[in-house]
Design goal:
seven-stranded antiparallel β-sheet; DNA recombination; 3 domains; about 525 residues; cell cycle; about 35% helix; DNA_ligase_ATP-dep_C; DNA damage; DNA ligase i, domain 1; alpha+beta; globular; nucleotide-binding; binds adenosine-5'-triphosphate; five-stranded mixed β-sheet; OB fold (Dihydrolipoamide Acetyltransferase, E2P); D-amino Acid Aminotransferase, Chain A, domain 1
Length: about 525
């Protein structure tokens, strides 16, 4: 019997992943992964989870397709690798430094792949090159961890969000530790709560009870922690940017009270207080310090204060505390007279609520902001979730799509990689492979010379194929595209096409958005006009 103390065979993990990919039934995916995880000793759970997510614990290994293609040895006939072997090889790849490191990396890679069977090679190559780093499995894996450890999935999800680490959560769950004791700790960044969207502010307000209608500032998300007086700041993807935001560090250092965790948006403002274009804020995060305007910050949430975690407290309580702590650095919109809108049956009727929300929306746009975020005042802070309690409303339709391929430009764009093939997520695999993407359109509109230059340099490094006309890309780059609408079309497999798609920005660097969070075909289908 293969006891759970030995290192599990890589082949078991690979076949569980294949089984999960081959079925469309969520319960079957979960069962396949849970069966494999149940065989993993707790200490090795982070390795197994990292492999299944395509995000090994060693981080990005920086192995390109060309490197892999050059070293691909003939596969082993029988499976012999255990996941600890893979972990050791990945560590060797990640830590090779200095003179001769390229040769040592090649040797480590050749040795690992030479010991793998053909199916294992395919799996490892997808992990190594980042092709699997779509996070497509994260949701089912969370359920699978719950099933393998006999812990309710809500408890696993919460622990994963608050610890920011699914592998470590799996370890604790499989070791029988009490996951409810994992809570927010100042100093450990948490996945930010996200918003769903609605086409109009009236619809957003109608969907919720008492709400706060807040300006949606077009800057960068910033999570700020203060522990024993030391302030650290993190981006949306939890990268630390403390050094880039000294004025915010100073501001937060002066707030009253003890340890704090604040959530907010930072942006650059004109002398007259109008929001600067998003790119100005990003150039600051990119490290160009000279000639920058100072950053301003607006906080819209507090997750820890007065020695306790507030993630389970209703937004109304958090707002009250927030106002007392941050004073004028509060997000505009929230808490200003008229912006807090009571629910049906309370002070205002629904027409009044809608009118008040519309006024705040108009004021937000007039001040140069992106729109509003309408938030349920009774809701807790759902770390890492895109739930119904926060609803963003913007005047145009924008979608975050994944770049599947890029065409070589011609004419004025000769020499550049230009036209983008845009994919929407298709998590159920209704239009192709499970967990994949479906192409919904192409565009080169909105691409500035800077963006063309960037993508011409960058895309070859994530290319997975080249037919001379276009490069196929690992589906990991998210681009925000504005459209006028969606129309029915037989041109693409999803049965829809985008109207007037233009690139707004890439979701990279400090503003990175993982492909697993890109918009889905269903998000786009909702924008189809009614049949008639
Ligand atoms: N008052 C606010 N409350 C919450 N988020 C805000 C607010 N103002 C600006 N934001 C920004 O808007 C984002 C909320 O939208 P969402 O959660 O969908 O993130 P996103 O996927 O980055 O969306 P988008 O591309 O629309 O900014 C937050 O991540 C934050 O950066």
């Amino acid at each position: 019997m293969s006891g759970p103390q030995a290192s599990p065979a890589l082949s078991a993990l690979v076949s569980a992943a294949a089984e999960a990919a081959a079925t469309r039934a969520r319960t079957a995916k979960i069962a396949a992964l849970a069966a494999a995880l149940a065989q993993v000793p707790p200490a090795q759970a982070p390795i197994a989870v990292g492999l299944l997510l395509g995000s090994p614990v060693q981080g990005r290994l920086g192995i390109g397709w060309r490197t892999v293609a050059n070293v691909r040895p003939s596969p082993a006939d029988t499976a012999s690798l255990c996941i600890e072997d893979v972990d050791e090889a990945f560590t060797a790849l990640a830590t090779a430094r200095g003179a001769g490191s390229a040769a040592r990396r090649t040797a480590a890679l050749t040795d690992l792949l030479g010991r793998a069977t053909a199916t294992e090679q395919d799996f490892l190559v997808r992990v190594l090159t980042g092709e699997m780093r779509t996070g497509a499995l994260a949701g089912v894996l969370t359920d699978a961890i719950g099933q393998a450890a006999a812990v309710p999935v809500a408890v696993v999800r919460r622990a994963a969000m608050l610890s920011g680490d699914l592998g470590e959560t799996a370890r604790a769950a499989l070791a029988g530790e009490d996951l409810t004791r994992i809570t927010l700790t100042p100093g450990v960044p948490v996945q930010p709560m996200l918003a769903s969207s609605a086409p109009s502010v009236e619809e957003a307000v109608a969907a919720l009870g008492p709400v706060s209608v807040e300006y949606k500032l077009d800057g960068a998300r910033l999570q700020v922690h203060r522990v024993d007086g030391v302030v650290r700041a993190y981006t949306r993807s939890l990268a630390e940017v403390t050094d880039r935001v000294p004025e915010i560090v100073e501001l937060v250092g002066g707030f009253p009270g003890g340890d704090l965790v604040l959530d907010g948006e930072t942006l650059t403002l004109d002398a007259d207080g109008r929001a600067r274009p998003f790119q100005d804020t990003m150039s600051r995060f990119g490290g160009r310090a000279t000639g920058d305007r100072p950053l301003s910050v607006s906080f819209f949430d507090v997750l820890y204060a007065q020695d306790r975690s507030l993630v389970d407290a209703p937004l109304s309580d958090r707002h009250e505390l927030l106002q007392a702590i941050v004073g004028p650095a509060l997000i505009p919109g929230a808490l200003i007279p008229g912006a807090l809108i009571p629910g049906d049956g309370a002070v205002a009727d629904s027409a009044e609520r809608a009118r008040a929300a519309r006024d705040t929306f108009d004021a937000a746009l007039a001040a140069g902001h992106e729109g509003v975020v309408v938030k349920a005042l009774g809701a807790p802070y759902a770390a890492g979730r895109r739930g119904a309690d926060w609803i963003k409303v913007k005047p145009v339709y924008t979608f975050d799509l994944v770049v599947l391929a890029v065409e070589r430009g011609s004419g004025r764009r000769a020499g550049w990689l230009s036209n983008l093939h845009l994919g929407a997520r298709d998590p159920q695999g209704r239009f192709g492979d499970a967990g994949g993407f479906v192409m919904v359109g192409k565009t080169f509109k909105g691409l500035t010379d800077d963006l063309l230059r960037w993508q011409t340099e960058y895309f070859p490094t994530i290319a997975t194929g080249d037919d001379g006309y276009s490069l196929a890309l690992a589906p990991e780059t998210v681009v925000e595209v504005a459209i006028d609408g969606v129309q029915r079309s037989s041109r693409y497999p999803g049965g829809l096409a985008l109207r007037f798609a233009r690139v707004k920005r890439y979701r990279i660097g400090a503003d990175v958005k993982p492909a697993a969070q890109a918009d889905t075909v269903d998000d786009l289908l909702q924008r189809l006009p009614p049949r008639g």
